[in-house]
Design goal:
Layout lengths: L1 H7 L5 H53 L22 E8 L10 E19 L7 H7 L9 E5 L3 H4 L7 E4 L4 E11 L2 E7 L4 H4 L17 E18 L9 E10 L13 E4 L2 E9 L15 H21 L20 E9 L19 E8 L10
Antiparallel strand pairs: 1-2, 2-3, 2-7, 3-6, 4-5, 4-7, 5-6, 7-8, 8-9, 10-11, 11-12
Length: 387
């Protein structure tokens, strides 16, 4: 009898098991919610950090690029001759974006600026066999091809391959600039022949097929650059994600050679600056940031948006805050070189995915999370008078 009583007391009753299961279920449900919240927090935090990093990188790239805006290397005295319809710096506000999705940005600003773009290296002149203009005059002889031929050590073969016909070469012992007509590569060395600049009317230095003023010193430093370049920043839809038929909005950098008829980008020079960009806005201030031209406005187009919009606001600012000799921009397409101007760029990036946590009505709809960072800068070559 005693043994049966002990056996009966050795296990749990059905009621006890059900109660234990109930409490275990409640505990597991609570732990599941905690785990889900932790995973969601990790995912959203990672997206925030990724978006902030993307914005920071794009800001850094824009800062470096803007510091080259208005860099005129072809002639340090006379500015390039530019058309009023394609000035050295301008903003097209609220340009419609091609083929956006319903939840993608529908419009964004476009930023344009002119520069002479230096190649990222310098070389050394290894041969000074070319005759100078003075030598040709004394000898009573006409210039030959050899009088415009130079051999330059570019230090590395990869650098030498960057030198192309149409680039300019600058000999730093006299700061003479010549257009390059032909290029012959030999390892790290490049043999160039100077010719006539096709864009001499823009650069202002005239044909460059003439001989050098003086014979250049052997081992003098040599610089190369692409003349008359225009850079454009804009937002475009790029189809990188197969799950998104409309593509991903990206901040793009395009570049092309200046033309008075308008901007024509070179496809091979298109660069992605940032992905998942939901906004790109550009503003200007000529009164130390007291007001921003274009801010809060709905301007569109070159004539109404830039000329009669942002540029007119800049002139209004200069009328009360500008220097006496530079108090207007109209009639001077290189006004940026004479007028210290703050440039503000607002870049808004969004999370890679839509989540209910980002929605104004959680659990009902999904939404992207936006992150905005701003760059405020006076570009290095703004406000430097040409004479």
């Amino acid at each position: 009898m005693a043994k049966r009583d002990i056996a009966n007391r050795a296990g749990f009753s059905l009621v006890e098991l059900l109660v234990a299961l109930l409490f275990t279920g409640i505990l597991m449900a609570g732990m599941a919610n905690v785990f889900k919240a932790s995973v969601t927090t990790l995912a959203t935090s990672t997206e925030r950090i990724s978006s902030a990093r993307s914005s920071r990188m794009s800001i850094d790239l824009l800062r470096d690029d803007l510091n080259h805006a208005g860099l005129f290397l072809s002639d340090l005295v006379s500015p390039p001759q530019l058309a009023g319809s394609n000035p050295s710096f301008y903003i097209l506000p609220n340009v419609p974006i091609d083929d956006p999705g319903s939840d993608d940005p529908q419009s964004a600003d476009q930023l344009f600026f002119y520069l002479d773009q230096p190649l990222p290296f310098e070389g050394s002149l290894t041969s000074s066999g070319a005759r100078s203009a003075a030598e040709l005059v004394l000898a009573g002889e006409a210039q030959t091809v050899s009088d415009g031929t130079f051999i330059i050590d570019c230090k590395e073969a990869s650098y030498a391959s960057m030198v192309q016909p149409g680039c300019f070469v600058v000999f730093k012992d006299s700061f003479e600039a010549f257009s390059i007509a032909t290029v012959t590569l030999s390892g790290k060395n490049v043999t160039i022949t100077t010719g006539v600049a096709s864009n001499s009317a823009v650069t202002g230095i005239g044909p460059t097929g003439t001989p050098s003023k003086a014979k250049h010193i052997v081992l003098t430093d040599v610089m190369f650059y692409l003349p008359a370049q225009v850079v454009r920043y804009s937002v475009k839809m790029k189809k990188f994600d197969p799950q998104k038929d409309t593509g991903i909005p990206c901040l793009m950098r395009d570049q092309g050679t200046y033309s008075s008829t308008g901007f024509t980008p070179v496809a091979s020079q298109e660069t992605i600056v940032a992905e998942n960009v939901s906004g790109f806005k550009a503003y200007l201030s000529a009164n130390s940031g007291q007001s921003w031209a274009g801010y809060g406005k709905t301007y569109t187009g070159f004539t109404a948006g830039w000329t009669a919009g942002i540029r007119t606001e800049i002139d209004t600012q200069l009328a009360s805050a500008g220097r006496s000799e530079y108090n207007a921009t109209q009639g001077d397409e290189n006004w940026i070189r004479n007028t210290p101007t703050l440039v503000r760029l607002d870049i808004t990036t969004r999370s890679a995915t839509k989540r209910t946590e980002y929605s104004a009505t959680p659990l009902a709809t999904t939404a992207y999370k936006d992150f905005t960072q701003s760059l405020v800068i006076v570009p290095r070559h703004f406000g430097l008078a040409m004479n």
